[in-house]
Write a structure and sequence with these properties.
261 residues; mainly alpha; MetI-like fold
């Protein structure tokens, strides 16, 4: 009887089975539902409904627009914060970084409910501002963390070489630090943009159903027992997210291969 020898790649078998059962299999089910009707007959009507219904196209455009604005806001706020934290050495920098990601330890729904309570107390009218504020608040750590990690990886010799060549502080930052941190910026932008266009809890709670985004449309379709239509919407969202990931991945590789200055 041959004795089985344990191999290092066998460690990945549980992970592979997990992906197969909880990622691949659900996506296949969604794909099947999206191209069939309630009687399991093949039909393209589910996708035609998306492009012929004004509410669906409006929700898609709004979701992409809100996602882009929220990502831009997170970048404008998150980059200076990440840069400031990266300049702190030792345990002080790690402690400050922990404080910024500490809200992520709380349940996403509880954070959103707390935000709605604050808006109600301040008597703010539910709408785009409250929704955008909630998205920036919830997803800002996803922007700060990858930028912070990328900034910490920058070899200090590049900065010293730039200064030795006569560059001032602003030039060193713009032509050395920023280009070297672009992979982190692109990674953070992807991590913020994708949940922004797919979430429905934030827009549902903080706008009081006055703003209908892509995620809200899918949620409503499932509640109305329109599973095939909801699956088509979900498939379209997966396609948008997939191409967004591919584009940012290519941009990240191009940035890594670029030379400074």
């Amino acid at each position: 009887m041959t004795k089985y020898r344990f191999r290092r790649k066998d460690i990945g078998i549980p992970y592979f089975l997990f992906l197969l059962l909880f990622v691949v299999f659900p996506i296949v089910i969604i794909g099947v539902y999206s191209v069939t009707d309630k009687d399991w007959n093949f039909t393209p009507d589910n996708f035609l409904m998306i492009f012929t219904r004004a509410e669906a196209m409006t929700a898609i455009v709004k979701s992409v627009g809100v996602g882009m604005v929220a990502t831009a806001c997170c970048l404008l706020i998150g980059y200076p914060v990440a840069y400031f934290l990266s300049q702190k050495k030792g345990k002080r920098g790690a402690t400050l970084m922990t404080l910024f990601i500490l809200p992520m330890w709380m349940n996403f729904l509880l954070r959103t409910l707390a935000m709605r309570g604050i808006f109600d107390f301040l008597q703010l009218t539910p709408g785009y501002f409250t929704t955008m504020f909630g998205m920036v608040y919830n997803f800002l750590p996803f922007m700060i963390l990858p930028i912070y990690n990328q900034l910490c990886k920058i070899d200090k010799s590049y900065l010293e070489a730039s200064k030795d060549l006569g560059a001032n502080t602003a030039t060193v930052f713009l032509k050395t630090v920023v280009p070297l941190s672009m992979p982190g910026v692109l990674s953070g932008s992807t991590m913020v943009f994708m949940p922004c266009i797919s979430t429905f809890v934030i827009s549902d709670m903080l706008s009081r159903n006055t703003i209908q985004l892509f995620g809200n449309l899918i949620n409503q379709a499932y509640k109305m027992d329109q599973w095939n239509y909801a699956a088509a919407l979900s498939t379209l969202m997966l396609v948008i997210i997939f191409f967004s990931t591919v584009i940012t991945g290519r941009m990240s590789k191009e940035e890594e291969n670029k030379s400074l200055w």
